Give the backbone structure.
Amino acid sequence: MTKAELDVFSLQGRFCIDTYAYYSVVFLSIKCIHKQIMGEYKLVILGSGGVGKSALTVQFVEGKFIGKYDPTIEDCYRKQIEIDGVDCMLEILDTAGTEQFTAMRDLYMKNGQGFVLVYSITSQATFNDLLDLKDQIMRVKDIGTNIPMVLVGNKCDLEDERVVGRHHGESLARSFGCTFLEASAKLETNVNEIFFDLIRQISRQSQRPKQSKQSSSRENTQTEQYSGCVQNYSSSHPDDRSTGHMRDCCVLL
């Protein structure tokens, strides 16, 4: 091989190495940006014991049905999904539904960004219990009515054992101001829809805080110019309450 041919071969080799290095850097950069913009969401599953909270969660995360009831103390699951073209990392807290663990709920609710309230269509008592759970969420979060939430009537495959009509669930959801779905962890009915809808609610809400904070800041400044004693009232303006969830979470669901 002549010297000229060796020089050409050497240049081609360096070109290949440089090209590989360039695309490696580009790939790593894209990967880093991807990690930075991936949304993270903290979701909390609430409801009385035996309504199927764990069954819904495991069906969504692992794609399998748990037929045997085993009371949960606390289980945390993580799952990466894509919703509307955006990668999301979900942290799902499956909470206890039994009486002895109710004291832990305040902490769950404080840290959660979105909530799934579950009852069984075969049990009126589990449906009635949701009123207290909703009130507790409102008390702990203290951010008005704009709390991402989905009301779920589980076990819709047990139609012959139904005691809670669908219209009752729809009516309660309207009073809560949230989405309503009947689901079956066993048949995989509306399982994905529960979590997808909740993530979309959180995403929509997270897009509003900046505008709300700027508006609230201007109102507080104007109020201070007239009377300092009115300042506390302005700081609790509904526009401010819509951003409250951002104090307890990072943007995980």
Observations:
- The radius of gyration is 25 Å.
- Residues 42-206 form a domain with the Rossmann fold fold (CATH 3.40.50.300).
- The chain has nine helices and six strands.
- The CA atoms of residues 132 and 170 lie 18 Å apart.
